[in-house]
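Title: Prediction job returns without error message
Component: structure pipeline
Severity: low
Priority: P3
Assignee: unassigned

Description:
Job completed but the reporter wants confirmation the result is attached to the right record. Sequence as submitted:
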Amino acid sequence: MKTLIVLICLLLPSMAWAKLNVFACEPEWASLTQQLGGERVNVYSATTAQQDPHHVEARPSLIAKIRNADLVVCSGAELETGWLPLLLRRSGNPAVQTRQPGYFEAAMQVERLEIPKALDRSMGDVHGAGSPHVHLDPNRLHTIAAKLSQRLALIDEANAAAYQAQWQEFSQQWRRKISQWEQQAIKLSGKKVVVYHQDWVYLNHWLGIQRVATIEPRPGVPPSAADQKRLLEQLQTQPADAIVIAAYQNDKAARWLADKTGLPVIQLPYTVGGDEQSTDLTALMDRTVTLLNGIQR
């Protein structure tokens, strides 16, 4: 009996301090969850900033991670539709299946842009629920953070007060940074850019930047030589100020276009870890605004 009591006493501290295992589909959600959860969460990111989140191999190691997860945090809006459903099925983890508290889609917590009125296979990789790249609008990310904090508290009720305190601190700092970024980026309103993929919908909407052309002829479809020629002709009548690409994207087509037009190519980190400076979400937005401010009229 004494041995049992000693064993229970030894186990209680580890049980009380057991961390939530969080499986984040992308680095931005890993960073946000870590910031909101602090020492109470153990966060794993399934992808890096150098990977296209649309196309990820459903590796056995990812299945093992999601099998042991208490919470799955992903962009949603069909961004991970090519790999996440398979991971969820094979994990056998009922707590993190869709429509369970342990499953969280960030994009579905906010109003989404570019929801198509109709879908057709010829349109390419169009997301029926709207653009999923919501993390690049800091106002939407603030709303997502509030909802994610609530979800952490729901799953880990014993630490609900701590999550609330962490959220309050994040919210105050983040709102101050939004004001700072908007002041720094005031001259970006009205700028016109060519993008490789439609990653920048929310960033452009927030800053008042206009997308005049996309290098991909259709989402997810690499450009051919004929597509490049047509785009070059289009820019003669619809000029742009810069070409914007993400760190994970092949820059060959963008560099060719830049050579023909003289437009600068601005490579943005896109997510946490996209370059050496973008170590967390605040640094990511600092870096993004700084790089965009390099656009000359």
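Comment from assignee: result matches the submitted record. Strands lie at 20-24, 41-45, 71-74, 103-105, 192-195, 210-214, 242-246, 265-268.
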